[in-house]
């Protein structure tokens, strides 16, 4: 892989990772309101939802690739 392309890729991944989304803001809010122990359910729900989204997107991509010539 081209080093300059890899640097751009790493920068993009870093920015996308540190940008708070709705689920991150919810986890932060629950952590502040209820403490870290009770907010673990929110974090676990976020992990499960992300995994489910990955599975659905992989299944869709697999279907598209299977239909391609």
Compact description:
With 69 residues, this protein is an all-alpha fold.
Instruction: Give the overall pLDDT as a whole number.
Output: 86
Rg of Cα set: 17 Å
Structural class: mainly alpha
N-end to C-end Cα span: 28 Å
Instruction: Kindly state the number of beta strands.
Output: 0
Shape: flat
Uncertain parts: none
Q: What's the total helix number?
A: 3
The helix fraction, in percent, is over 70%
Report on this structure.
The protein is mostly helical and 69 residues long. The protein has one domain (3-67). It is 83% helix and 0% strand. α2 runs antiparallel to α3. The longest helix has 28 residues, at 40-67. The two termini are 28 Å apart.
Comma- or semicolon-separated keywords:
69 residues; 83% helix
Topology summary:
Blueprint: H1 3-18, H2 22-34, H3 40-67
Helix pairs in contact: 2-3
């Amino acid at each position: 892989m081209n080093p300059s392309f890899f640097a751009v890729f790493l920068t993009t991944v870093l920015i996308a990772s540190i940008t708070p989304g709705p689920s991150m803001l919810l986890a932060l809010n629950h952590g502040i309101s209820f403490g870290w122990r009770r907010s673990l359910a929110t974090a676990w729900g976020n992990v499960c939802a992300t995994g489910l989204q990955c599975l659905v997107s992989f299944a869709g991509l697999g279907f598209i690739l299977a239909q391609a010539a």
